[in-house]
Amino acid sequence: MQTINMHYAELKDSYLFYNIAQKTKAYLEEHPGTHLYRMGIGDVSLPLCDAVIKALHEAVEDQAHKDSFHGYMPECGAPFLREAIAKYYGERGVALSSEEVFVSSGASDELGDILDLFDRSSTSLVIEPAYPAYVDANVMAGRKIVHLSSGEENGFLPLPDENTKADLLYICSPNNPTGAVFRKEQLQAWVDYANKTGAVILFDAAYEAFIEDPELPHSIFELPGARTCAIEICSLSKTAGFTGTRLGYTVIPKELERCGMNLNAMWVRNRTTKTNGVSYIIQKGGAAVFTPEGQRQIHENIRIYKNNAACLMSALDECGIQYFGGKNAPYIWMKCPEGMTSWELFDYLLHEIQVVGTPGEGFGACGEGYFRFSTFGSPEDTKEAARRIKTLFSEEAH
Ligand code: MLT
User: Fold this and answer.
1) Rounded to the nearest whole angstrom, what is the distance from the C-alpha of residue 242 to the centroid of ligand 1?
2) Coil, strand or helix at 262
3) By CB neighbour count within 10 A (0-12 exposed, 13-18 middle, 19+ buried), where does 353 fall?
4) Which of 95, 277, 281, 294 is the most exposed, having the fewest neighbouring CB atoms within 10 Å of its CB?
5) Which pLDDT score is estimated for 165?
6) What is the mean pLDDT of residues 367-384?
7) Residue nearest to atom 5 of ligand 1 (CA)
8) What digits encode the pLDDT tens for the residues 116-164?
């Protein structure tokens, strides 16, 4: 009898960011006391904004008194937060009912959990280079994966064609790792494809708050037809610095049906069975993000990360190194110098200038030859990392 999920044996030895953490740990053990300039994993460096901190403190105080104490929270999310998120969409012209918003403990958890809604025989299409958890979660679940490569020829934004065949479509826009963002008419092609074939889009909108260009869509629900074919998964990790606090949300429209089943109702059934909701305190902190004060403050932090991006991009420009992203997304996707693989570049930057980035190969085979910088580091570290990159590559050119 087979008791173990043998699909785990098909996974790479370790998860990308775990791998990087192990390599940097080994470097630090060999070079104790060295300061590293960490631009690998997209982990934020700025603290939570004042509006959130105030709401968290108040919520802790609520838990200290009989009259304001909260026990179990509603499994799909506190009404106050579901309403605040629905209002946030409404302000951007996307009408949602609060019952279409599910509060989660973060997008990465949800991207794996949501697979419960789909049959194991369904095929998942992953546009690569991609956030590696899409692939790993599907491998663990034993699903067939179609890897759709993207590259410079299509601006890392491939469109469906007559050969595209899949039941679940992972789309991340703004994209991690390339920073590319689908324009409305491009995204519409995926929405039309999904409605025509019965596929479901899993739209990862974790980086929507970084979009600067007013023409670009923040949500897939800005597009006609998306309500019958898409689920949107979002997170406050990058938008509001919740990487360690954990909070996200998922939008499942009531019209989304497949095989006579309603996916919103299925997710209610799933959540009420599998979770006891996100903590009251964290949801209160999350609701503060959607107040006018919270929005103003989180955008001040986003501005700081955007300055980091500008600083790195200017260093790469000065060195004549080609890159993508950085404008509407918090990632810079640079080309590796001629003849260097992305893991070789990782080792080179770590050993020569103590800068940590993420090798493109970790995002799929077509990411080889590229390297990702996260712009979530501290401004001081990013400035110094940019200076070191400039010195290293200009020395090399001579
Ligand atoms: C990344 O660096 O790609 C992300 O921070 C990873 C994540 O959100 O889990």
Assistant:
1) 12
2) strand
3) middle
4) 95
5) 95
6) 98
7) 42
8) 999 999 999 999 999 999 999 999 999 999 999 999 999 999 999 999 9
190-245: pLDDT as tens digits: 999 999 999 999 999 999 999 999 999 999 999 999 999 999 999 999 999 999 99
Question: For residue 370, is pLDDT > 60?
Answer: yes
Distance in Å, CA 43 to ligand 1 centroid? 7
The protein residue with its alpha carbon nearest to ligand 1, atom 1, reads: 42
| H helix runs in 161-257, sequence order | 184-197, 237-240
Could you tell me what percent of the chain has a pLDDT over 70?
A: 99
List all residues whose CB is within 6 A of at least one atom of ligand 1.
41-43, 108, 131, 176, 237, 374
Long-range Cβ contact pairs of 334-340 (< 8 A, separation 24 or more): 334/370, 334/371, 334/372, 334/373, 335/369, 335/370, 335/371, 336/360, 336/369, 336/370, 336/371, 337/393, 337/396
140 neighbors 8 (Cβ within 8 angstroms)? yes
**Cα 3 to ligand 1 centre (Å):** 32
Q: State in Å: Cα 218 to ligand 1 middle.
A: 19
pLDDT for residue 397 is more than 70: no
